Amino acid sequence: MGYREEKMNFSMWHVIVIVSVGLAIWGAIALSRWSRRAEKPGGVGGWLALLIAGLIFLGPLFSAGRISSDFMDTESKYPKLLTVEAWLNYKNTAWIFFGIATLFGIYAGWCLARRRISTSPFIAIAAIWILGPLLSVILAIILPIIFFGATGLDAAGAGALAVSGLPAVAWTLYLLKSKRVKALYHQV
Predict the structure, then answer these.
(1) Angle value at C-alpha 107, between 103 and 108, nearest 5 degrees
(2) Among 35, 150, 172, 188, which is 20 to 30 Å from 93 by CA?
(3) CB 136 within 8 A of CB 164
């Protein structure tokens, strides 16, 4: 029975990934079509379209899947956690923080896609840093200290936190230096 359930969950994750990728591709195509109708030629496209798709579609779907998977893995290793009130409170609080950060990320993606004002890239930069390193610090360090009295972070956790900053740095540099971004939002 356990093998069959495990196999079913594995198949379900395949479906979730395929649907997520399909939605992201559909969103990128729809965004590309919209940008062609925009008043300026050379609208949203390329890396900017990928960033918008990531903020609106890919990021939320893959992050929710990763967090859910991490919770399920931990609960399968330690089944008694399901009866520990601190664990349930931690999970609920983590989902609330994730939801708030995700809504801000979706708003930032919408700003990049629809609003041609100079603040749109800066809203996106803030969302990228909130969704990446800040949310990682909250979920991996601050909430465990609050709910479990954790005192430190293992080497793997520290490495994961450091790596979460790399995409944020890359996207920040792109949004600050890109000619496309400057043309669309800063009217240079």
Answers:
(1) 115
(2) 172
(3) yes
In whole angstroms, how far apart are CA 129 and each of 69, 91, 167?
23, 22, 9
Consecutive H or E run containing 25: helix 2-37
Structure tokens at 121: 């890239």
Query: What gap in Å lies between CA 67 and CA 48, rounded to an integer?
Result: 26
Question: What CA–CA distance (Å, rounded) separates 144 from 156?
Answer: 16
CA neighbor of 54 nearest in space, from 167, 135, 159, 166: 167
**Cα–Cα dist 164/143, whole Å:** 17
pLDDT at 116: 84
Please give the pLDDT value at position 87: 95
Q: What is the pLDDT of residue 6?
A: 46
For the chain, the domains span: 2-186
Confidence (pLDDT) at 57: 92
3-state secondary structure 69-132: HHHHHHHHHCHHHHHCHHHHHHHHHHHHHHHHHHHHHHHHHHHHHHCCCCCHHHHHHHHHHHHH
Q: Which residue has the higher pLDDT, 102 or 165?
A: 102
